[in-house]
Design goal:
Layout (H helix, E strand, L loop, with lengths): L5 E5 L4 H13 L4 E4 L7 H6 L8 E4 L2 E4 L1 H11 L8 H6 L6
Parallel strand pairs: 1-2
Antiparallel strand pairs: 1-3, 3-4
């Protein structure tokens, strides 16, 4: 189970950022939200997502995870005390979950 600092880079109007925030809240994970200006991307965002330069980005234990569905899958596997999706759902619809 993860215990290091969790940072979410996102934007208040991004549905993908909201999706990740809801997953973190559902799991009861304390996190720091860093608002990004998508028209003027911060060096911190560019450092952690230099390829696509998009939000959301979850940073946990020094590791950056990008793409909201991949982030949610990571959250579900790392903090597995409250599953977001059942195992059978992940197996049958794995392509939808990342």
């Amino acid at each position: 189970m993860g215990s290091q600092e969790v940072i979410l880079l996102g934007c208040w109007f991004s549905p993908c950022s909201h999706r990740v925030q809801w997953a973190l809240k559902l799991k009861g994970i304390h996190y720091q939200f860093m608002e990004e200006d998508i028209s003027n991307k911060s060096p911190f965002l560019l450092k952690h997502n230099p390829v696509t330069r998009k939000i959301p980005v979850l940073i946990h234990d020094g590791k950056a995870i990008v793409d909201s569905l991949s982030i949610i899958e990571y959250i579900d596997e790392t903090w597995n005390h409250v599953p977001i999706a059942s195992r059978s759902l992940r197996e049958s619809h794995g392509s939808l979950l990342g």
